[in-house]
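Researcher: Batch entry, complex prediction.
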Amino acid sequence: MTSFTGEVRIVGAGLLGTSIGLALTKQGIDVAISSKSTKSVDLAVSYGAGRAVREDDSPKLIVVCVPPQLTAQIVAEELIAFPDAIVTDVASVKAGILAELERLAAPIERYVGSHPMAGRERGGAIAGRADLFVGRPWVITPNAKSDAAGIKLVADLANALESSVVTVSPKDHDRAVALVSHVPQLVSSLLAARLVDAKNDDVALAGQGLRDTTRIAASDPDLWIQILEANSAEVLQVLESLSADLATVIGALHNLDSEKSIAQLRHALEAGNIGVEKIPGKHGTKHSTYAQIIVMIDDQPGELARLLTEVGEIGINLEELKLEHSPSAQIGLVELYVVPSAEAALIADLQKRGWRIA
Amino acid sequence: MTSFTGEVRIVGAGLLGTSIGLALTKQGIDVAISSKSTKSVDLAVSYGAGRAVREDDSPKLIVVCVPPQLTAQIVAEELIAFPDAIVTDVASVKAGILAELERLAAPIERYVGSHPMAGRERGGAIAGRADLFVGRPWVITPNAKSDAAGIKLVADLANALESSVVTVSPKDHDRAVALVSHVPQLVSSLLAARLVDAKNDDVALAGQGLRDTTRIAASDPDLWIQILEANSAEVLQVLESLSADLATVIGALHNLDSEKSIAQLRHALEAGNIGVEKIPGKHGTKHSTYAQIIVMIDDQPGELARLLTEVGEIGINLEELKLEHSPSAQIGLVELYVVPSAEAALIADLQKRGWRIA
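Model: Structure tokens for the complex:
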């Protein structure tokens, strides 16, 4: 499955360091965990994330998993302390760390930045889990001088953790995460802050929409100040366009008698529809690129398996599948999503086999 | 369990009408479904949400489940057509509907406004589910003339659907939903709109944070324009305070060298922490009634059918199922939803059979 072998040194025993250690140790890889906090190392080691460091450690790969503000300094120290090792890190902003390493005249040939797009609201070794990275993007941001062998080694690490490797430049990375992570964090915090002075009776009416939009507002302010400082230019670009659109919506709501205002509100809401459709694998939305076929099945065990077996026999690949089971319904509605070119043939074949299409 | 009895008429066979019909039919209550769309009625009826209307229908309670802009007119018509019935509705904004009914000189003694705080970003009869209201607030907004017996009947309906009844004035309701529903909707739309012109490679880095904060941006613009128009004054209050805080954050990011800027960023993030803590039951999962089990399957044909066949053999009923197909992942993550009492046994049995549980 994976070609990753050799000794790994992890610096920092928080959520990410511990999770990487758990996953590698599970695969029989020798993992040494280092942290300024002996308590964290003890916890991570007893959790099964690796062993304590030894005098004669000779790691092939070092993964620096410390807070963003400390990352460049620790990466530089590790590059010097282990002159044969490749060093990567997991910080959420990449261009500033590279600039700092260049300023420190660090041997960046052996440095390859990483950013695994995985996390939890809970931090610390105790929150670590071996499957944290499974199916998540792992962004690799080589610099102009990075050794090819080093880039491959970091990609092997990501593959060993069952992540999907994405390789981009530090600058492209920072622009992307401003959009998909840093601005959503700030907007979620600003939205949740509306609740601070609200009446409890009003907040008690909260539904799932408010819960989802404010979930990440529970994140650690210390960590996020570091991230926002390190990526302020890219964050500002996105935030200022949002601010301009917000001003338009406020203007429209003040002036609802004008047709232009209604058109502006519609435009804002429709742009939201279009934007959310662009997110790959988005929960709960119909992918406009796939055709939807609704099959009614009897609400009895085995019917869904029988349907899927027959879809397999027909030889058409399912892109997505949803089953809504309503406890009182006499039938189940299965939504099959296929590429549009396969839609007509699948419907015809399913009907021939006696399935009811809604 | 419930003291609710008698014939119910539901006008409108969308998500809410169908869901109410499913839940009441399950309890043996006679439900007649009326809609201008015969196709919707057919789907709702075959789904098990009730029966078509008859000449001699004599409902005790009528639930109007049509778009907000039509609600006052339809409520008025139903009050006149069925002079012995209590009429409620499910629209998201309440003060304007009452004002319109007063203008129409409708017999509002028999009208009691409702707003069940439940929904999905998907609409239509197909999205209906009997448990949509379980554990959710059901807001009742009586008017000054509402009969006490009518208020009790609507509360009985909410209780029969296992909602928690909250009684407030139409004005208090509208202020609360601006905060917990209407502004989160607009903010989510504005955030998702940032993705419209973004590079696909950037959006591909999206994690769960972006997915959660933008989920409701998939909502129906037509519906939301009606809601925002009807509640613009309350929405503007919240939106303008958010806009002011956004301006402060933008100013701080432009001027990071100042200590005051860091304090402002910290204040914004900490206010988000405090706000989110105020939401009751914020740790609840999306489907509070079901347990979620994530099974990792190899991304090859037949694996899902094999899993479902084995779940069938184990004899546990799936309440819901989702499969996300990630183009770059070597594994698929199947989400199984079961009643909580079945969770432990299903996990144990699946693991014994060699399935990997995430």
